[in-house]
Design goal:
Elements lengths: L1 H26 L6 H8 L3 H8 L2 H23 L5 H18 L1 H8 L10 H21 L5 H23 L11 H13 L3
Helix pairs in contact: 1-2, 1-4, 1-6, 4-5, 4-6, 4-7, 5-6, 5-7, 5-8, 5-9, 7-8, 8-9
Length: about 200
Amino acid sequence: MAKATEARREALRGRLIEAATATIRAEGAAALRARALAEDAGCSVGAIYTVFGDLPQLVLAVNGETFRRLGAHVVAGTAGDAPVERLVSMSEAYLDFAASEPRLWRALFDVQMTESAAPDWYLAALDRVLSLIDAPLAEIFPGLGPEEVRIRTRALFSAVHGIVWLGLESRISAAPRARLREMIRFVLEGAARHD
């Protein structure tokens, strides 16, 4: 009996994540409404809160899946033997993902949460994405320990993310979309120099 209940709960969890993903993809995270999600998932409104507690927890679950897809997209887009070329190709894959899934990508950063408040599984999903950047940086800076590499990873991620965000949002300080790849390459090649 307990196994059947758990199986139904997991199936409902999957349907809710699917429904929330479709809503976020089409309209953004702010468009999530419990009643519409319940209808899409074929459950009661109360069942949502039994499975997730609240809608922000459901958004975290969608984001966890988005991190997984983003990581797979970056890995698939990674090319080149030199670590800088791998960083550039990974960043271009990041740009491509953000451009093709803008609302799901934005939802990753709309979460109002500190690292100390984030669930362990969520931090692990983020860590898997950041570790993709750690590897080529460790090759570029072989004398650095993992903590120092991760600081550089976060710095480069922040720089690339800023370029992508400003460019895709068409902000006044951004370069034209056609020049985003050039800007990314400029930042990454400059960061890899250690004269």
